[in-house]
Amino acid sequence: MKAVIFAGGLGTRFSEKTQYMPKPMIEIGGKPILWHIMKIYSSYGINEFIICGGYKQYVIKEYFMNYFMHNSDVTIDLSDNSVHLHENHSENWKVTIVDTGLNTMTAGRLKRIQPYVGNEAFLLTYGDGVTDLDITDSIEAHKKSGALLSMTVYKPVGRFGAVEIDSENMVKSFMEKPDGQGNWINAGFFVCEPEVFDYLHEDADQTMFERQPLEDIVKDGKMHAYKHGGFWKPMDMLRDNVELENMWNKGVAPWKKWN
Hints:
By secondary structure, the protein is of the alpha/beta class. The protein is built from 9 helices and 15 strands. It has helices at residues 15-18, 33-42, 57-65, 67-71, 106-112, 114-117, 135-145, 212-219, 238-249; strands spanning 2-7, 27-28, 31-32, 48-53, 73-77, 82-86, 94-99, 122-126, 129-131, 149-154, 162-165, 171-175, 185-192, 223-227, 232-234. The strands form 5 sheets. It has a 7-stranded mixed sheet with strand order 7-4-1-8-13-10-14, sandwiched between helices. The chain is globular, with a radius of gyration of 19 Å. The protein starts with a strand and ends in a 10-residue tail after the last helix. The mean pLDDT is 92.
């Protein structure tokens, strides 16, 4: 199963950093948050990735093209221009990076990578959030639900739009930032059947995946909610990056499931 990662947005809330790089390349503990997300999936045996690039996507391409150099000690012999890698720290990953356009909305980005997914179920998330989600269990729950799409939902402290779920864990509606707390919200980790692409119309480039496509799937009664009660944190602004960096440096990063 492949994991698709949205990584093409402008990241305007991080303008002091994103003028040089796309938001998913902002580092936590010396590694891009994109790398952390991929390590989360990889710890559950998901090692094939499709990255939906856009803004400064060449930075992501350069990082993976030179992954050996970024993550290994090297000896460079200038006399013959040879390079020797020491203690090679690579990954068993296959990474496809697709330029899905500079200003394309998320539905359009997803539609553009359809040929790389093929006719099989896939995972989907954003390149700016980490979690201790049990990926394997979420996949199994999706299969049992028989739904077209499963969305991981979470109860945060506040500030997000909410999701209404029925007794069968099927999503009934979205509520845009309701008053009060204790509501389930979209945590941005999905398990999708290939029929999801049927909900991406010709105007997908101007459409947010989180709006019409997901709302239409809900109306058709085909969206399942996977409740996550552990850790989840999106990196929406600089203070989130600082908090995640502090967790990592203190050795208390709940999303680190790998050795």
